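Course assignment 3, question 2. Fill in each field.
Student: A.L.
Task: Predict the tertiary structure for the chain below.
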Amino acid sequence: MTLNSYKTEARTSFLLAYPVMISMLGQVMTGVADSVMIGWTGATPLAAASLANSFFGVLLFFGIGVSYAITPLVAEADGANEPQKIIDTLRHGLIINLAIGVLLTLLVVFGQNILHHIGQPNDVVELAIPYLLIVTYSIVPTMVFQTFRQFAEGMQRTRMAMVIMITCNFLNIGLNYVLIYGIWIFPELGMIGAGWATFISRVAMAIWMALYVFQAKRFANYRAGFNFGNYSKAMLNKMLHIGLPAGAQFIFEAAAFGFSAIMMGWIGTAPLAAHQIALNLATISYMTTSGLGAAATIRVGIFYGKRDVLGIRRAGFTLIGLGLFIMLLWGILFVVGKQFLPSLYINDDLVLKKVAPLMIIAGFFQLSDGTQVVCAGALRGLQDVKIPSLLIFVAYWIIALPIGYALAFKFNYGAEGIWYGLLIGLTLTASAMVWRFHWLSKKVG
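Answer field:
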């Protein structure tokens, strides 16, 4: 493989990835906008939003992970020129995602009271539960959006999801403004208003994305994918064997960060609010490389359909390199902006003092974070999800969280100790993922 071939791949992959990167940013900016605008009302509402989003985010990310089964199967079928498999993937993916969305919603509704039993401040929990229930209703529309988004991305059409995400994010910000603060004829709902804004914007995303896929001429031959009924047990099993472990990857990681928020709550309200701010900012950078990970799934999936080993490795390692470069820039920004960036969220000296050291640690783990998310995407393109799920589980739950707990509570490092543990988990995950892709990509034939 020549240097020019890598340059060509980098150009092709970036043109495919940047709309996904922007749409991923749009997705997380819904939470960022909520946190910023809720933070302006005080530290306790911000801590409550952190607690609710930690609980809700674990389940939502699991659902999103399940939906990721669509992209590699569509990309593989497109690379192999098998249109009927593309239709079958969309049709089965839609019913799976709807069922998962309903199940996750019911799980939150019936499990909400767990927040009273995890050692969090009572005033924080009382604010968190009503907000949690409202944002939970957005899971089903999010899963509908994800179904058609992953289909379109598998077909290398990534721009419309970007447009939808950006537009609906502005809708969410506008609704936040009028519903949180009670502008014009709207009542002042506080953080509850932010929950309703999130729900409305996600419903709009789902409707718009479904209409785009149904009406676009490019997808006219695949409209049978909207039909219900006549499902194949073999196809459902195949998609679940990819989707459930992919969802487990997200839930292991999201749950690790969620449990870290619970440990922060054991320290106090100010550390919990600081954790929410640092995590929000780290999530923004994570989503940029998640876009590269999605591109890796698409590009590797297409070459996997063609059984092109050189193409698989070129695509995967090119995107890993792009991820490292972008996350280096993010890391520098976090360290340099450790005081300014958090000040955009809240004007509370105690919280700002707590968050600055966390920003430095977050800056250091950007390289590991970018590497592991791109590698995970490349491995999904190879339809390899079970071993990566196990690697993530071990890295976070067997190593990172126990170390973080020990550093925080046994060695008195406090909030910083928890984040040192997360840094270790991300670094171990990244190392294991790179080795896994290097080894597995050589075996395709």
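Instructor remarks: Residues 67 and 146 are 6 Å apart (CA to CA). The chain has one domain: 3-441.
Grade: pending
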